[in-house]
Structure formats: structure tokens, C-alpha cells
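Each field is listed here:
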Amino acid sequence: MKNIVVIGGGTGLSSMMMGMKKIKDVNLTAIVTVADDGGSTGRIRDVYHVPAMGDIRHVLCAMSLEENESLFTDLMNYRFEGEEDIGGHSLGNLIFLALMDTTGSFMGAIQSISRILNVKGQILPSTLDVVTLYALMQDGTLVRGEKNISTVANHIDKVFYQQTITPYQKAIDAIEEADLIIYGIGSL
């Protein structure tokens, strides 16, 4: 049995994992970025000072083996209307936040949702730190936050974090034990 590790985030990673879960005789691991700072994820991240869970939520849904996959995915991706209180929030993000509280950890929430959705493989965050992504553009402009980077009409010279980030050790272990590593480049 081969160990396949896929690293990425957003729509690209979840799309790849939706197809890869159908491969027989492999151990799949998705290592997911937690730098998202937009929408519901960004609001929760800012208020509760927790790593971003939106990309992880998408990958959890993509790796589900449930017969009623579309029902669970629809519920996890349901977004409340409006902009106040729960308006604009994804139901899956709120469930994730509730499970963080009841299990006592970010990883506890991932493991609980993985069991509920009957996920094939494991999903690991790249870090448990609350991170903010920066981009230095070719013209010297510094852009703060993932949600802002794509709004600037400029070419990226480099992306980075301003603080030291501690990688999640289980993600490092999975990379070291991998037979195949796939790095899915995202929108940046």
C-alpha cells in the first residue's frame, strides 16, 4: 500500500482529493493550509483566534465516502443569508467551531467530522498556528492577507509569513513517510 500526501488548499486540493479517494490500495493524507482569512472563516478566525477551517471543511467533504455525500456536503457548505449574526457564515464552519469547543481542540474537530463523513484517509493542517499570509509584489507593494492578495493587479514576487510558524508535526511525519508527494498549487 502506497502513502500519498497531497499538499494545498482551497478548491484545487478538494477537487484533487475528490478524485483521489477513488484510488484503491492507497493511504491518502491531505495537508491543508490554514491561511484563509476571508468570509466566514476569516470572521471566525479573527473572533476566536483559531486556525482557518474553511479549506479543511472543503477537503473533509471532498474525501467523504458517505452514500449521502451530497446531502452532507450541502449542509457543510450551506451559507446563511445576510451579514449580521450568523449571516454569511457557513454551517460547516459553525459546526467545526462547536466541535472544537466540545472536543477541546482543532484536531478533535477534524477527527469528529472525519468520522461523521466517513472520510477516506486523514486530513492534517499545515500548522495549528493562526497565520497571516503576506505577498510582496514585483513593484514592491506589500499585501497582507490571503483574501487581499488576489485583488491586487500585480505579479507576486514572493509570499511569506512575518512570524515564525510551527509546522504541525503529524504533517511533517506524513511527508517523511510518503511514497508520493503532490503539491497542488492554489490560486496564488
Notes: The beta strands are 2-8, 26-32, 122-125, 133-137, 142-144, 156-161, 180-183.
